[in-house]
Amino acid sequence: MQFGMPTLIENRTLEENISLCRSLNLRFIELNMNFPEYQTEQLERTDELIRAAERAGIYYTVHLDENLNIADFNRLVSDAYLETMRRAVAAAKKLLCLRNRYGDGSQPMILNMHMHHGIHITLPDRKVQMYDRDFGTYMKSFEVFRSLCEEWIGDSSLMIAVENTDGFRGYEEKAIRYLLESPKFGLTWDIGHSKAVGEKDVPFLLEHRDRLVHFHIHDGSETPPANHLALGDGEINLKERLELARNRNARCVLETKTVQALVRSVRWLRENGFIPSGDES
């Protein structure tokens, strides 16, 4: 199995993240475009990213901006997010050489994506999600999005993986089903997120288990809701989830939020046989 780490807020530079990744003998870093250090312009400095990764023998995946909202009713806004996606895909294609050299060529390079819920209007007796109310307009945006992503990715070994967060809305599930009709789209199972919301996304994820290509691995609990815990600190049946990831030949990001939790998680993987005993420094 191929394990990697997220971009950690304690590390202010790429070099600090790479140093930690290498010290733990992890295989890749998921560059997070929510951070100012990994905005589109920085991601496009691919020569620098490649040289830094080559020195450590690692590769990258990409976590797209969580605000990415390709269905925004304001076309100026949605067009900006589409352009962000186009440029992120172009940069990722240039970074594929690292996956080929240091990763597993049978696994596509992943651009991880959240679904944006959109806004809701609160009525006296209920909340109305605007994307649900104007579902036809919402789906037209995803038709354009899927077509453009297929064009931008072309025949390269890239895939956009949609991640569960705090529970897919009904309109989102319909849009994801549409995206999954394309071979350029898959699913990320964030096992901590799903635990913290009572596993409400699990039926949908398991229904589409053949499209699971990426996992965010961290521990979590339902009561009180918590996630991004070090492995072993929560209530998740981690071995079951990891075995599914192994069976799916999926890449796994150890998505803790602190260096300490990441180190402890790598130790848990070693002690439980998911990483050979000599693979942690």
**Order of helical and strand elements:** EHEHHEHEEEHHEHEHHEEEHEH
Q: What's the quaternary structure here?
A: single chain
What Rg do the Cα atoms give?
18 Å
**What's the count of strands?**
12
Low-confidence stretches are: none
**Largest beta-sheet characterization:** 8 strands, parallel, barrel
Q: Roughly what percent helix?
A: 40-55%
Q: Report how far the terminal alpha carbons are from each other.
A: 18 Å
Task: Please state the average pLDDT score.
Answer: 96
The largest sheet has its strands arranged as 1-2-3-4-7-8-9-12
Overall, the morphology is globular
| Share of residues in strands | 15-25%
Q: Give the helix/strand class.
A: alpha/beta
- How many helix segments? 11
Would you write up a description of this structure?
By secondary structure, the chain is an alpha/beta fold. Helices cover about 45% and strands about 20% of the residues. The protein is built from 11 helices and 12 strands. The chain has helices at about 15-25, 40-45, 45-55, 75-100, 130-135, 135-155, 170-180, 190-195, 200-205, 240-245, 260-270; strands at about 5, 30, 60-65, 110-115, 120, 125-130, 160-165, 185-190, 210-215, 220, 225-230, 250-255. Strands 1-2-3-4-7-8-9-12 form an 8-stranded parallel β-barrel, surrounded by 6 helices. α7 links the parallel β7 and β8 (about 185-190). α1 packs parallel to α3 and α3 (about 45-55) runs parallel beside α4 (about 75-100). The mean pLDDT is about 95.
